[in-house]
């Protein structure tokens, strides 16, 4: 059997280099040693009785060397084949850079046992079922010198989110890399050189979950930068609400929830499950579950246990001034700056208990809003019925989001959050922090 050609293919697979090998001798030394790069592989005799195991002792690889233990078996029974596809090569274990032998991904990852001494390891190789026979186990080795730039790239891979070629080229490859690595880390930690950014601060400033008030948060003031505004009139949170439809005039319908107007539409039609489209009239309707939060998105309602889709979709906000004036105790308005100071927010896909739908479409302010109305809103408590009005009278609902309360050494949340059942923001009292 000329297994040397097979091992030749395995070496090419590992090192992408061809070497000239002779036929492998079958030897069983007490201590197996990885072959030198470019020399004959070392075959390791392993038993074949399924359910048994074989103990072999293998020396650690040398420096700058990767040594692999492979299981090699024929897929066709043609032991003289030189075609790679005719052979199954399975990694069993590896040792590299003079490190201890270790498990690798594959069928042996949770079955191979390894016990190591200073210079060698004993591998307990199980005889797995379902493996075509005959099988051979062989040690193959390859080595490669890492260039200076590759060492720099490896360092930057470990300490950053990924280097660029420009980052790598900033290092002087003619000088000691270790000292440059130390200097690089020191510069990164010196706030006078690089102003730090903190993940915690970034998260706390940008968390914008739907308004759910608690001791750890408060409503984001609508005049603050990053405030969110929506054009559509209905939301997921309206599920199971009662929508009251009244006539504004002969051509307009007023939609209200909880006695507070949401919008005025010109027509009111529903498309039922059987495809029928009907003109609907005034009355009370149950708000359904599936709501796409963008203008024109699907909105479902119920009438007498019959669901229907609102024709035209989620309607845009439009409340005539007489409506706003009449409900001035429950509907507030605030002038907004020009539209150029806002960025579009794309809806996010959401999937829960059914088909995919979208939530959160709108716009986000890129500046703090300053006007006399904002000066009166310092104690704003999160009233959802706040309408922002652009200079062209375009109306948008304020999309109330939370902002986390300060929790710093200077302004900690009471008891580190323990009062509200959050214990992860502080440690138990002890003699070190009791005061």
Q: Would you kindly provide a written description of the structure presented here, covering whatever features stand out?
A:
This protein has 435 residues and is α+β, with helices and mostly antiparallel strands. It folds into 4 domains: 140 residues, Immunoglobulin-like (Sandwich), CATH 2.60.40; 42 residues, no CATH class; 109 residues, no CATH class; 85 residues, no CATH class. Strand 12 and strand 13 form a beta hairpin.
In short:
By secondary structure, the chain is α+β, with helices and mostly antiparallel strands. It contains seven helices and 27 strands. It folds into four domains: 140 residues, Immunoglobulin-like; 42 residues, no CATH class; 109 residues, no CATH class; 85 residues, no CATH class.
């Amino acid at each position: 059997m000329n297994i040397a050609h097979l091992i030749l293919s395995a070496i090419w697979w590992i090192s992408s280099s061809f070497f000239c090998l002779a036929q492998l001798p079958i030897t069983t030394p007490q201590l197996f040693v990885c072959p030198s790069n470019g020399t004959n592989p070392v075959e390791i005799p392993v038993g074949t009785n399924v359910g048994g195991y074989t103990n072999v002792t293998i020396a650690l690889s040398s420096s700058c060397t990767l040594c692999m233990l492979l299981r090699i078996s024929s897929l066709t029974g043609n032991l003289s084949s030189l075609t790679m596809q005719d052979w199954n090569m399975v990694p069993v274990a590896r040792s590299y850079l003079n490190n201890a032998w270790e498990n690798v991904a594959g069928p042996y990852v949770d079955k191979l046992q390894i016990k190591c001494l200073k210079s060698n390891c004993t591998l307990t190789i199980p005889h797995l079922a379902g493996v075509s026979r005959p099988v051979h186990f062989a040690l193959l080795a390859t080595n490669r010198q890492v260039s200076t730039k590759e060492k720099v790239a490896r360092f930057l891979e470990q300490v950053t989110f990924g280097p660029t070629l420009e980052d790598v080229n900033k290092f002087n490859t003619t000088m000691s890399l270790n000292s440059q690595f130390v200097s690089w880390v020191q510069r990164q930690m010196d706030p006078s050189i690089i102003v730090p950014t903190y993940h915690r601060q970034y998260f706390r400033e940008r968390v914008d979950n739907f308004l759910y008030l608690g001791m750890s948060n408060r409503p984001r003031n609508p005049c603050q930068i990053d405030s969110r505004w929506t054009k559509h009139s209905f939301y997921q949170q309206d599920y199971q609400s009662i929508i009251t439809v009244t006539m504004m005039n002969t051509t307009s319908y007023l939609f209200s929830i909880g006695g507070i107007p949401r919008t005025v539409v010109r027509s009111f039609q529903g498309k039922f499950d059987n495809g029928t489209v009907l003109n609907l009239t005034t009355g009370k309707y149950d708000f359904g579950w599936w709501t796409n939060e963008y203008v024109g998105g699907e909105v479902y309602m119920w009438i007498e246990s019959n669901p229907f889709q609102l024709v035209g979709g989620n309607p845009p906000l439009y409340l005539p001034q007489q409506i706003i004036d009449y409900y001035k105790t429950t509907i507030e308005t605030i002038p907004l700056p020009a539209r150029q100071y806002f960025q579009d927010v794309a809806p996010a896909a959401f999937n829960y208990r059914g088909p995919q739908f979208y939530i959160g479409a709108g716009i986000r302010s890129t500046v703090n809003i300053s006007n006399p109305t904002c000066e009166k809103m310092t104690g704003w408590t999160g009233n959802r019925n706040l309408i922002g009005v652009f200079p062209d009278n375009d109306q948008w609902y304020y999309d109330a989001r939370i902002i986390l309360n300060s929790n710093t050494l200077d302004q900690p949340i009471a008891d580190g959050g323990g009062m509200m059942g959050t214990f992860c923001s502080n440690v138990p009292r002890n003699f070190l922090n009791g005061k």
